[in-house]
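User: Could you go from structure to sequence for me? I need the amino acid at each position, not a summary. Structure tokens:
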């Protein structure tokens, strides 16, 4: 299932863009055709690469159950941090490669604890089915992004990696691999398209969400009635439509 279902309903799309922003030192609105600063933070933030770090680690000769116990222990030991953990099978080591995304303390001090965080470099992977290289112009700098078989590589254009060719060399890509260029307006479109088209099962894997901090019974009626009402209306509309079509088909078969 994808959020693309919401695109059929104008109210649902408006609600989505009212509650999702892009954070790069400040919050940007997604509803227009270009990045525009907004004064208030959104409940859901697509986070710029500057505000998180990535680390890969190999765990050899390990079962999936053992790995999950280790990751659970690591996450519990960093209670004051926000992390995302992902893993892929490493057949050569008879274990797993684990990717850990750490959000910066500067970001966490600028947002509320119940803000939902989505790393930008993980989000745009949903639009790529195979190996690719992107040159992205974001509001705070140019980002080189690439996808290989099971990994995503990303870095800001700076220092020794000041060209696409040097970035290709650093990740072992051939020099003749095509690079897709995205200006700021095009990049905003890529983010919005990625958000709408990502599979919900994949979205859950790349989201940082503090459930215990998000449910406050005292403020539930103030904060969450709008999302709940919108979701309820959406379900009623879609289910009603499917029931109508099903009944229509049955009448045709009877005739």
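Assistant: Here is the amino acid at each position, in order:
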């Amino acid at each position: 299932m994808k959020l693309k279902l919401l695109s059929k309903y104008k109210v649902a799309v408006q609600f989505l863009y009212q509650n999702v922003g892009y954070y790069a030192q400040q919050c940007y609105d997604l509803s227009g055709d270009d990045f525009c600063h907004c004064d208030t933070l959104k409940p859901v933030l697509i986070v710029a690469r500057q505000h998180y770090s990535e680390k890969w680690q190999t765990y050899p000769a390990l079962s999936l159950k053992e790995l999950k116990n280790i990751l659970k222990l690591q996450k519990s030991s960093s209670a004051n941090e926000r992390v995302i953990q992902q893993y892929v099978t490493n057949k050569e080591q008879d274990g797993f490669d684990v990717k850990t995304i750490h959000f910066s303390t500067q970001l966490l001090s600028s947002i509320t604890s119940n803000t939902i965080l989505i790393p930008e470099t993980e989000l745009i992977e949903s639009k790529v089915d195979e190996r690719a290289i992107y040159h992205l112009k974001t509001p705070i700098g140019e980002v080189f992004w690439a996808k290989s078989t099971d990994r995503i590589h990303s870095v800001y254009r700076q220092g020794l990696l000041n060209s696409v060719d040097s970035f290709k060399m650093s990740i072992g890509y051939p020099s003749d691999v095509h690079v897709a260029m995205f200006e700021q307006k095009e990049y905003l479109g890529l983010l919005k398209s990625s958000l709408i088209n990502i599979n919900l099962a994949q979205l859950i894997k790349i989201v940082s969400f503090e459930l215990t901090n998000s449910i406050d019974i005292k403020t539930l009626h103030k904060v969450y009635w709008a999302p709940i009402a919108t979701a309820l209306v959406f379900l009623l509309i879609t289910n009603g439509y499917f029931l109508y079509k099903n009944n229509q088909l049955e009448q045709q078969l009877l005739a």
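One structural detail worth keeping in mind: Residues 220-255 form one domain.
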